[in-house]
Amino acid sequence: MAGRGAKQHVRGNQRLFAGVAMTSAMSPSRTAIAFGLVLAIAGCAAPPASLPPLDTEALPGRASVAVPYYPPSTPTGAATATAAALDRYGQSLSDARLALIETDVTRELPGAIAEAVWEAGLSGWLLAAPESLLAQVADGHPVIVRLRRPDDAIHYGVLTGYDLAAGLVNLHGLDGAAAPMPLDAFLAAWHSGGWSLAVLPGAARPATGRWD
Question: Strand, coil or helix: what is 8?
């Protein structure tokens, strides 16, 4: 899929996931374990005390990505958010993986989601800067986000669009398909949730300077 920046591809059998190189020399089970641990550790990072300023100079004023909407099947919405992101590239969750994500109510959900992306033959990239989330949407890539709602519940959704002038983002989640949400409220919930994953095709990686 073409983006606004040139995509850099990994040579040979090597793939990069969330900044971690995984080669075909590793067994699937060991790769999955290592990948899950990296994502789980990253997902447990404490959110910053205050929101950093949002640098939008390099971003288009508005953007959206076509992602199907699946009503959340569990309180966390993790399984349906993952399924929607995979569907963007014509992939789907296996029944076993779907069941695993739907029944996992622990802090290991980020690892389970990342492994599902890997199993589908796609690339998953952790994003640390708010501009990176919006940049990936502008490049046509869905971003799975973990949000902490006002009632302190954790919910997973898919960022599908934004409009800087209106100060809004669009989110597949508990409130419906591409539901509008104030940008400031979204960023606060995302920072508190502490995790996001951009889903890209194959061995693609985000354009230079757009991922963290």
Answer: strand
N-term to C-term CA, the chain: 21
The torsion angles phi and psi of 160, rounded to 5 degrees, stand at -120, -10
pLDDT tens over the chain, length 212 residues: 333 333 332 222 223 333 333 323 333 333 333 333 334 334 444 444 456 677 888 899 999 999 999 998 888 899 999 999 999 999 998 888 888 887 766 557 888 899 899 989 999 999 888 899 999 999 999 999 999 988 888 999 999 999 999 999 999 988 888 899 999 999 999 988 889 999 999 876 665 334 44
pTM of the complete model: 0.74
At residue 178, what are phi and psi to the nearest 5 degrees? 50, 40
Report CA torsion sign: 191, 195, 198, 204.
positive
Residue with tokens 């994500």: 101
What are 139's two structure tokens? 């490049």
Is the CB of residue 58 less than 8 Å from the CB of residue 138?
Answer: no
CA distance 118 to 139: 20
194 backbone dihedrals φ, ψ, rounded to 5°: 80, 20
Q: How far apart (Å, rounded) are the C-alpha atoms in residues 164 and 10?
A: 33
Closest CA to 93 of 138, 144, 52, 43: 144
